[in-house]
Write a structure and sequence with these properties.
heterodimer; A: 294 residues; alpha/beta; Rossmann fold; 2 domains; 12 strands; 25% strand; globular; B: 471 residues; mainly alpha; 77% helix; 0% strand
Chain lengths: 294, 471
């Protein structure tokens, strides 16, 4: 399992890192924490890299490194990094720049297999898409953004499953809202739901929405399967069957105290591009974190 | 759908959304190709105009890598039947491009000598510990150094000095304060002001000199350029410094302990090494060569002599030069200059100049003012959108075809292209200070607009009062 956590600043990325690292720990995943800095004008890239090299020589953090430094101390505080390593100061780690536009700091993790901190610069969608494509992440975790296009692009173009940490409050008691339907991917969605529920030791609300109140064979099978799996893993759960518009019902049930887990849309990419998709609509309107399983 | 998998369609969609400007410029160029040639323009001029349009769209939007834009400019000249492959090749390389290439390599060689610590000491010894003197000192040193060795190099070298002072003052390096804004802008604006001083201050000066000689207008020597431009540089520094001070007045007026800590840190480095002394001597030779020999052998060749010396004395490794030289810049400006030459030869520049004059004359009536407005105000504004060198490369041929005294209009254009105060993309130095995260885009406007206007006024005064005396 490989997880990518995208952070942007100390002020806004706290919850993202919290949720991400806890999921990582629970799933025993290899984790990469990435900060995507602003795009650098191409005429200036070399000048910036010369300036960066000089800053290293003066022991000054490069731009963007302060965010990674903050993440590093967060990892120490929360015991994600073993002791010998955590005694070293952040500046002592060697930067690996062998891949262009990707600066990497290797850290050895204690409770999870491996943690990487990396810095990239450029358009956030481009950079995350490339990172996911080359290094094959299973799950990308990001904070929410107010820009509609950005959410759309994340969901449309990032090829891993996506967790958008929207409006997350550490102190709040959450349940999982697991949206089950008759689609092919629903089994994977259920599995994700189970793993996250186990990770955080929380209960699951199974939700199935039927447009006309009638449930087809595939839906019934999926629901039974889900119930069986939850029982086997001894996770407390309840089941809700709703009739109406799936997006609206999911948002109504989730309120602000659920983590929504749902499958990605099965529509063709072109249809999604022009008309949007259910997950996108849920992301836009809901007030809770949402995991879209691809 | 159509036998493509969902992933393939998604990939295509991604490409289309990211490259929409490339697609648009392709469609535009295709439709312009079939539009009848405008009156007064030759058919090859029409095709050159298409290339200019495509190049501008692609440079501004950065939707494909800049070297790709450069290559496209070269390819289109041949494919559209404007010139033969050999002709493009010979217009692509010139002494101006030698100079841009040589000075970028020289910059890498100089930066890697570790002279930045030495430089810090000089600045501090010169300024003492009062904040206003430090800010002024940063601006002065940045301006004078960048007038000789190029603005971006100096920007990169001064940045860590400023950041160390800010950190030593007990301020965090991830939170902007007036002090950090003041010092960083002193560097960036100092470098911009300095870059007008000599031909080697910025690639765009060389492009202009290249055009002037290529079009058979005049041969400007290193010293002559300095006579025109250096006085403006010296007048502008104190004024810019005062503007910055009153726009970003810091609370900390004395940086006593901060300066002391910096001195201690720098003192650890000991005295100049023999390599460093040699590096400085070589640069002095290059400088003297630019002044005394460039009329005979060209500025570019002298810059390349410098690179040759640095390499053969083992002061820098080729790998280092190869890694840190921005070859995209060399390619792009080579291509832009070759396009500029085609603009001149096919009459596109003349046609565009005529159109500009016609339209602007409706606004101002006086031809003299129109010329001045185009070469100064339009250049200044475009610089802040496009980057300064690209602006001069594209606007240069048009401006030189507008009549009047082409030498003074040309130098004016080059100087105005240094008014890169308003945006992040205007110059590499602006980008360098922005990359620290301490300067936001709106900060550029706060002091920038005042400097922009004052620079234009100063340039106007100097062209009216001082230039007639020397030309």
């Amino acid at each position: 399992m490989k997880i990518l956590i995208a952070i942007s600043s100390k002020e806004f990325s706290g919850p993202t890192l919290d949720v991400g690292m806890n999921i990582s720990r629970a799933l025993n995943a290899t984790t990469t924490i990435v900060d995507v800095g602003e795009k650098i004008n191409e005429l200036s890239t070399k000048d910036i890299s010369i300036a960066n090299e000089l800053m290293d020589a003066w022991n000054i953090n490069r731009p963007g490194m302060d965010v990674l430094e903050w993440a590093y101390y967060y990892l120490i505080q929360n015991n994600f990094i073993i002791k010998e390593d955590s005694q070293r100061s952040f500046q002592d780690f060697i930067l690996d720049e062998s891949v262009s536009n990707r600066t990497e700091i290797h850290l050895d993790g204690a409770k999870i297999k491996k943690i990487n901190l990396i810095l990239r610069n450029g358009d956030i969608i481009n950079e995350l898409r490339e990172e996911v494509k080359i290094y094959n992440y299973d799950l990308t975790i990001i904070g929410s953004s107010s820009k509609r296009n950005l959410a759309h692009d994340f969901i449309q173009y990032i090829e891993s499953s996506i967790l958008i940490v929207n409006n997350f409050n550490l102190k709040k008691q959450y349940r999982i809202l697991l949206a089950v339907n008759g689609s092919k991917g629903t089994l994977k969605t259920i599995k994700y739901g189970v793993r996250v529920a186990q990770a955080f030791n929380i209960e699951i609300t199974l939700l199935t929405v039927s447009k006309n109140g009638h449930l087809g064979e595939k839906y019934k099978n999926a629901i039974n399967r889900a119930k069986k799996m939850l029982r086997r893993c001894s996770i407390n759960s309840s089941f809700i069957l709703e009739k109406g518009d799936p997006v609206k019902k999911i948002i109504d049930v989730a309120k602000d105290d659920h983590i929504i887990i749902m499958g990605a849309s099965n529509q063709s990419p072109l249809a999604k591009f022009f008309t949007g998709s259910k997950p996108l609509n849920v992301v836009e309107k809901s007030k809770c974190p949402i995991l879209i399983v691809k | 759908m159509l036998g493509f998998s969902a992933r393939t369609i998604s990939n295509i969609l991604f490409w289309v959304t990211r490259k929409k400007w490339l697609i648009l410029s392709f469609l535009l160029s295709l439709s312009f190709f079939y539009v009848p040639t405008p009156e007064g323009l030759t058919s090859s001029g029409h095709r050159v105009l298409i290339i200019v349009l495509v190049a501008l769209i692609l440079i501004i939007t950065e939707s494909i890598p800049l070297p790709a834009v450069a290559i496209l400019i070269i390819i289109m000249q041949v494919i559209l039947g404007i010139v033969s492959a050999d002709q493009v090749a010979s217009s692509f390389m010139s002494d101006a491009v030698f100079f841009i290439m040589g000075s970028l390599m020289l910059a890498v060689a100089i930066v890697s000598q570790g002279l930045d610590k030495r430089l810090a000491l000089i600045v501090i010894n010169l300024t003492g510990n009062k904040t206003w003197r430090i800010a002024l000192g940063f601006m002065l040193i940045s301006a004078i150094l960048s007038s000789f060795i190029g603005e971006h190099t100096v920007g990169a070298m001064m940045l860590p000095v400023a950041l160390t002072l800010i950190r030593n003052a007990g301020l965090k390096l991830n939170k902007a304060t007036n002090l950090s804004t003041l010092l960083l802008f002193s560097i960036a604006y100092g470098c911009a002001i300095g870059s007008i001083g000599t031909p080697s201050g910025g690639g765009r000066n060389i492009i202009m000199i290249g055009y002037l000689s290529e079009f058979g207008i005049a041969k400007i020597s290193y010293l002559e350029w300095m006579k025109y431009a250096y006085p403006l540089l010296l007048i502008e520094i104190p004024i810019a410094s005062v503007i910055l001070w009153y726009t970003f007045t810091p609370t900390k007026r004395i940086m006593d302990s901060s300066v002391r800590k910096l001195k201690v840190k720098v003192a650890k480095n000991g005295s100049l090494s023999s390599d460093q002394i040699l590096a400085i001597i070589i640069f002095l030779f290059i400088f003297l060569g630019w002044i005394f020999l460039s009329p005979y052998v060209g500025l570019g060749i002298i810059a390349l002599c410098g690179v040759f010396l640095y390499l053969s004395f083992g002061l820098i490794e080729w790998q280092q030069i190869n890694k840190n030289t921005n070859w995209a810049v060399v390619l792009l400006f080579g291509a832009a200059i070759s396009l500029g030459i085609q603009m001149k030869e096919t009459g596109t520049a003349f046609w565009l100049a005529g159109k500009t004059l016609d339209y602007l004359q409706l606004l101002f009536q006086d031809l003299e003012i129109v010329r001045w407005f185009t070469s100064v105000v339009i250049t200044g504004l475009l610089t802040n959108l496009l980057s300064s060198t690209a602006t001069v490369a594209v606007l240069g041929p048009i401006i030189l075809d507008m009549g009047g005294n082409p030498v003074s209009i040309g130098i004016m254009t080059s100087i105005a292209s240094a008014f890169s105060y308003l945006t992040v993309v205007a110059s590499p130095t602006c980008m360098i200070i922005h990359s620290t995260g301490l300067i936001t885009s709106s900060d550029y406007l706060k002091a920038g607009w005042k400097l922009f206007i004052i620079s234009i006024i100063l340039l106007f005064l100097i062209t009216k009062l001082y230039w007639p005396l020397i030309s």
